[in-house]
Amino acid sequence: GLGPWVVDMFLLFQCHRADVFPIDDPAFRNGTSHLWGVYGKAADWGLCRTRNEQVIRDLHRPFAPYRSISSYYMYNCCGKKR
Question: What are the pLDDT digits (tens) for 11-48?
């Protein structure tokens, strides 16, 4: 079915909307964790969608209403090796 993740990916990569915030995407959360050096409450110390939602939102707040740009950077950051 179509869930929030599918809708976010469609809006971000196909419709090129300016303010898409794909918090359900693990790559987005991992990129956020790597870029800002923030560790969360997930099993691998990554950022958890439910337990760390406010932290993630606060980190991306300066980019509003253009959070899609920060999302692209999070995907790029997630793909880089340390």
Answer: 999 999 999 999 999 999 989 988 888 888 776 777 88
58's CB contacts (< 8 A; 6+ apart) are none
How many angstroms separate the Cα of 7 from the Cα of each of 11, 39, 46? 6, 27, 23
Contact in structure between 82 and 26 (CB atoms under 8 Å) = no
Quote the DSSP letter at residue 45. S
Report the C-alpha gap between 38 and 6 in whole angstroms.
26
Which among 75, 63, 81, 59 is positioned nearest to 8, based on CA atoms? 75
Report the predicted TM-score, pTM, of the whole model to 2 decimal places.
0.84
Single-letter code of the amino acid located at 13: F
